[in-house]
Amino acid sequence: MGEGKTVHSPLVTYGSMLSLLTLCPPFVILLWYTMVHADGSVLQTWNYLKQHGLQGFVDIWPKPTAVAWKIIGCFAAFEAVLQLLLPGKRVEGPISPSGNRPVYKANGVAAYAVTLITYLSVWWFGIFNPAIVYDHLGEIYSALIFGSFIFCIFLYIKGHVAPSSSDSGSSGNLIIDFYWGMELYPRIGKHFDIKVFTNCRFGMMSWAVLAVTYCIKQYEEQGRVADSMLVNTVLTLVYVTKFFWWEAGYWNTMDIAHDRAGFYICWGCLVWVPSIYTSPGMYLVNHPVNLGIQLALFILVAGITCIFINYDCDRQRQEFRRTNGKCLVWGKAPSKIEAKYRTTSGETKSSILLTSGWWGLSRHFHYVPEILASFFWTLPGLFNHFLPYFYVVFLTILLFDRAKRDDDRCQAKYGKYWKSYCDKVPYRIIPGIY
């Protein structure tokens, strides 16, 4: 199968799987508890746990309630229906290692617009109060932790019993199969793509929905929305809007085209994104900061600039690939390397690698504005507590790891061509430094 073996060695897989399974679920709950009930103070939570020990931790872990399951169920069903029924352009993904080409329906922007308009409408007309979501957040995260684990078991069984395409298979090791996934493109029926659902329509969509939820909760509690919360929410929504605008491009990335649908990526999108990625806003609900118009505008403009650069990096490479290098990059003809590689079936194919524009600065320069953007939408909380910045730290580690994995994969795929590419673009992420 290859993918399970090349991602990381079995030892690293066991280590990361055990740590994810044992550390991430309690971390999600502790983060929520600290933000919502311990004033955002890690020290306060630490002292509580020191005093009450393991029993204290068991006491703060919310039990999944019927309300939580209902909220998750309605949201998931709503997104699944939109994914299936909304019209969208037919988009082909990249050719897989087994020579398959997945076909998608690109209706992300429409689904995003319908979701936000519906959510704001049900609040506005008094049908459902989003503050309820905030009030049951702990139970929702608890339900997601267990529910997503069961969902990953379903994916594992499906990979064995009814794989959707020939891009699936076992490494012969149950733990590696469960963790890294069995199938590259699992589907339910012909049209419902599971990874598009978990990564985009549940994970990313919940990020936007929760950002709006935190805003509404603060408004209901305090009668106004602080400028810090507005800056955080606007930047988050601009970022998620950019994501859906570029969703078809995302289907060409490592998450979709190389990482299989297993615990690592699906549990991450179903649990980690709604809890950790939204945490700066979660913190601001009870800790409104008044930035003043100048600082608020500065953070907003800086954040939007970073999001735009991140988008423009992806757009530049997409345009370069679409036109087969016959386009302008920063006003002149792009410099490129023509690389050859062999597929698993032994065919020789060629590819072009862009070495100018943003992609001439470093091999993964697009991660720099992404990390900076996350810093700017956390910044409105200022520096009273470290915890809101956990997401920025986590994202930095994640992207640096991803850059290394991507480089290793390209090295294996392109060989000598990759070496000449690295000679031309020597820096991995930060130009001049790393």
TrEMBL record:
UniProt superkingdom: Eukaryota
Location in or out of the cell: Endoplasmic reticulum membrane
Enzyme Commission code: 1.3.1.21
Stated name of the protein: 7-dehydrocholesterol reductase
Coiled coil: none
UniProt xrefs under PROSITE patterns: STEROL_REDUCT_1 (PS01017), STEROL_REDUCT_2 (PS01018)
Transmembrane segments: 12-33, 67-88, 109-128, 140-157, 229-246, 261-279, 291-311, 382-400
Gene Ontology CC, one term: endoplasmic reticulum membrane
GO molecular function list: 7-dehydrocholesterol reductase activity
Location (main, coarse): endoplasmic reticulum
Family of this protein: Belongs to the ERG4/ERG24 family.
Record key words, sorted: Cholesterol biosynthesis, Cholesterol metabolism, Endoplasmic reticulum, Lipid biosynthesis, Lipid metabolism, Membrane, NADP, Oxidoreductase, Steroid biosynthesis, Steroid metabolism, Sterol biosynthesis, Sterol metabolism, Transmembrane, Transmembrane helix
First-level EC class: oxidoreductase
Membrane protein topology class: Multi-pass membrane protein
Gene Ontology biological process: brassinosteroid biosynthetic process; cholesterol biosynthetic process
